[in-house]
Amino acid sequence: MERRKYYVYNQTRECFLSLGVTAADTIFTRLRGLIGRLSLKSDEGIWVVPSSGVHTLGVMVPLDLIYLDENHRVIHLVEHFPTFRIAPLRVQSESVLELVTHTIYSSQTQVGDQLLICYAEEMEQRLSRAAALQANVSI
Predict the structure, then answer these.
(1) At 40, is the pLDDT very low, low, confident or very high (cuts 50, 70, 90)?
(2) Could you tell me which residues are beta bridge partners of residue 73?
(3) 30 contacts: CB under 8 Å, gap ≥ 6
(4) pLDDT-derived band of residue 74, with 50, 70 and 90 as boundaries?
(5) If DSSP codes are grouped into helix, strand and coil, which group holds residue 8?
(6) How far apart are CA 10 and CA 132, in angstroms?
(7) Are 123 and 18 in contact (CB under 8 A)?
(8) How far is the C-alpha of 110 from the C-alpha of 48, rounded, in Å?
(9) Residue 95 in contact with residue 48, Cβ under 8 Å?
């Protein structure tokens, strides 16, 4: 069964980080993670929930790591984290995004940025509401 994909949007920088993140929110999916994957597409990744740290033991590709608090605010970043390593623990972290390398750089994501993580349908509704509010303000 195919797991639903989440969109990850940086509200602070007004850009998408990914359109294909899968939640690793069970014991099995957190243990499995990206182990054995030889490559990732540019919009792939996993969202490890809950998590205060991750590892790349058995992962064949380097990753960008984004640590988030309970409100999906960025609290720590690791660019180009190598394979077969244990990432730093951040006790205040509630979840960690594991994304393809250069995601942090290309999006200019920084500590303190606010992320929105939701399904495609919800993202469309939120962005439509925001556009409508913006149009009403500018009239």
Answers:
(1) confident
(2) 114
(3) 24, 48, 51
(4) very high
(5) strand
(6) 19
(7) no
(8) 19
(9) yes
